[in-house]
Specification:
- The chain is built from nine helices and nine strands.
- It has 263 residues and is of the alpha/beta class.
- The mean pLDDT is 96.
- Keywords: Oxidoreductase.
- One of its GO terms (molecular function) is oxidoreductase activity.
- This is SDR family oxidoreductase.
Length: 263
């Protein structure tokens, strides 16, 4: 798909990190971008800086997401591109020793359910609602109507200790991709996911300020190049997935060849 001013894109989590890099890349290529984010202050600021539209959206709420798409489409037309980066979750081990109680504490079903709503269910919600809108578009070359890019993680394949929810649910995001791509093949909508490794997003840069030795160790753990990923590198892959019409049904690692150890 050629990216220009005729293409509308929605990016979730677009106020920072990988979402912001995706929004910047798409806007820089000429697309009309709408940022969905729960952080209104940052979202408005980033949107103003890159010439995008901002809509406050809670990805865990069907009503909020539906309203968000309505607002985005009213401003910029029906999107042909969705990049879903936003997520919310809780972390913890399946069982962790509680020293005060002298017993094991379980990662609760409630915490797992909360995480499922913030990762896997939200990914299906955003992708399926966007696809429903894309289905109304006139097809482009090869009958293409749209492109959906979900954000998984290398944790989907080698999650670490304490990532029971994160790892399994990001694996679920990868699991959405092929069946959804097949479901949507007759409509002309492609679906892929990106599995980022360790990227220099605001939470990781906070580690650099708080514990520089740990940050240096993280950089050294990447085979090559020996550094954290740069958000624009994620944005670059987002553009390629839009532009290259033969990318479909793929789960792509973007990680400097890292394979995460147990801890």
């Amino acid at each position: 798909m050629k990216i220009d001013s005729s293409v509308s894109a929605v990016v979730t989590g677009g106020s920072s990190g990988l979402g912001r890099a995706s929004a910047e890349a798409l806007a820089g290529a000429g697309a009309k971008v709408t940022i969905f984010d729960i952080n209104e202050d940052w979202g408005q600021k980033v949107a103003a800086e890159i010439g995008a539209t901002f809509v406050k959206v809670d990805i865990t709420s069907e009503e909020s997401v539906v309203a968000g798409f309505e607002a985005a489409r009213a401003a910029n037309g029906q999107e042909r591109v969705l990049v879903h980066c936003a997520a919310t979750m809780k972390g913890g081990k399946t069982l962790a020793w509680d020293r005060e109680k002298g017993a094991y504490k379980r990662f609760s079903t409630e915490d797992y359910t909360y995480s499922a709503h913030g990762v896997l269910i939200a990914s299906y919600r955003l992708a399926s609602l966007s696809a429903l809108g894309m289905a109304s578009l006139e097809p482009l070359e090869d009958g293409e109507r749209g492109v959906i890019t979900l954000t998984a993680s290398v944790a989907a394949q080698d999650a670490q200790i304490g990532q029971i929810a994160y790892g399994s649910l990001k694996a679920g995001v990868n699991g959405l991709v092929l069946p959804m791509a097949r479901d949507l093949m007759d409509i002309g909508i492609r679906v892929n996911s990106i599995m980022p490794g360790i990227f220099a997003t605001p939470p990781m840069l906070a580690v650099k300020d708080r514990a520089p030795a740990i940050f240096e160790g993280l950089e050294a753990s990447v085979p090559f190049p020996k550094r954290l990923g740069r958000p624009p590198e994620f944005g670059s892959l987002v553009l390629e997935l839009v532009r290259n019409g033969y990318f479909n049904g793929q789960n792509l690692r973007l990680d400097g060849a890292i394979r995460m150890p147990p801890k």
